């Protein structure tokens, strides 16, 4: 068989991608055993109450060989290998530890944790999670789990059953990246979620894109009709924030407020947070 040069190069490229995946998956397993993860927290601002009410936990990984790694690359690989549930366990432990520390500091701050499709479909993982949540010292009411539409769509019946169990255990659930999957607002009706998180692709240019404005406005309106609260991610400027406030959005998260921070950076930031920067919105 005679292959073209282009095809040969394509195959080499494919091998490289494959090798990278194997390497990252292997290094990730080392990190699970030996450490190397860090949990950052990005504050979420409650537009109605006018205060920072929560923070999203976002994982980072620094590997001695691969360098600084971002979750968009390694989380999908951890899902494929099945290691994701071990990572989620680590995230949960770390987040609960921080939440207790903030509490001790006098900050009433909740935490949002991302769950992957694999987490949601693994019954023994959900069993373990619920068992942990039963402990008295855990503030279930301050804990939110974020799930994506695609996590639910992979096996809706199974996912919904486990989400319902989490819901019944007293934690809140948010539909993350809303608008990027294939589910519709009407399907949300039957889902045990409290909050809808509008994907940043609709929010990043909200101030200048009329179509995004229409989409976001009607999403907020319909979510409210379904009894869900709405948070917008990816708020990068004051103009977008003001629009979201006018549209009745319940909460925001984004670089305009703060990038993801380490726990100690966040603690410092909270202490000096300039309320006035956002307060004029409420005039
Ligand atoms: P996500 O859950 O939708 O998280 C929001 C992402 O948007 C984060 O990226 C955050 O840093 C970024 N972001 C927030 N505000 C802005 C903004 O104003 N502008 C822009 N351009 N970006 C903003 P990050 O931390 O890189 O995480 C990417 C994705 O990786 C997350 O998307 C989530 O799906 C996944 N992920 C992160 N941490 C975890 C984790 O602990 N467990 C699981 N299962 N997935 C995680
Ligand atoms: Mg999220
Ligand atoms: Mg999101
Ligand atoms: Mg996202």
Automatic annotation (TrEMBL):
The alphabetical list of record keywords is: Membrane, Transmembrane, Transmembrane helix
One term under GO cellular component: membrane
Gene Ontology molecular functions:
cyclic-guanylate-specific phosphodiesterase activity
Q: Where is the EAL domain?
A: 21-274
Alphabetical GO biological process terms: signal transduction
Q: What is this protein called?
A: Diguanylate cyclase (GGDEF) domain-containing protein
Q: Which organism is it from?
A: Saccharospirillum salsuginis
Portion held of the full protein: 497 to 779 of 779
């Amino acid at each position: 068989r005679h292959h073209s040069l282009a095809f040969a190069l394509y195959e080499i490229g494919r091998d490289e991608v494959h090798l990278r995946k194997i390497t990252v998956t292997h290094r990730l397993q080392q990190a699970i055993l030996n450490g190397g993860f860090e949990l950052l927290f990005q504050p979420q601002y409650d537009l109605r109450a006018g205060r920072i009410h929560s923070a999203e936990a976002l994982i980072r990984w620094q590997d001695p060989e691969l360098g600084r790694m971002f979750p968009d690359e390694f989380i999908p690989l951890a899902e494929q290998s099945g290691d994701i549930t071990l990572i989620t366990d680590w995230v949960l432990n770390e987040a609960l530890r921080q939440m207790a520390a903030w509490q001790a500091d006098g900050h009433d701050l909740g935490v949002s944790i991302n769950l992957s499709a694999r987490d949601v479909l693994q019954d023994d993982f959900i069993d373990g999670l619920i068992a942990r949540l039963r402990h008295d010292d855990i503030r279930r009411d301050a804990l939110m789990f974020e799930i994506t539409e695609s996590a639910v769509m992979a096996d809706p019946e199974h996912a919904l059953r486990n989400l319902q169990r989490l819901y019944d255990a007293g934690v809140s659930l948010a539909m993350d990246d809303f608008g990027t999957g294939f589910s519709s607002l009407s399907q949300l009706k039957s889902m045990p979620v409290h909050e809808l998180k509008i994907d940043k692709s609709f929010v990043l240019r909200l101030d200048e894109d009329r179509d995004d404005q229409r989409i976001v406005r009607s999403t907020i309106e319909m979510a409210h009709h379904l009894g869900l609260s709405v948070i917008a991610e990816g708020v990068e400027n004051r103009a977008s924030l003001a629009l979201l406030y006018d549209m009745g959005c319940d909460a925001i998260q984004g670089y305009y407020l703060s990038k993801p921070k380490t726990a100690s950076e966040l603690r410092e930031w909270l202490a000096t947070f300039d309320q006035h920067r956002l307060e004029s919105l409420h005039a």
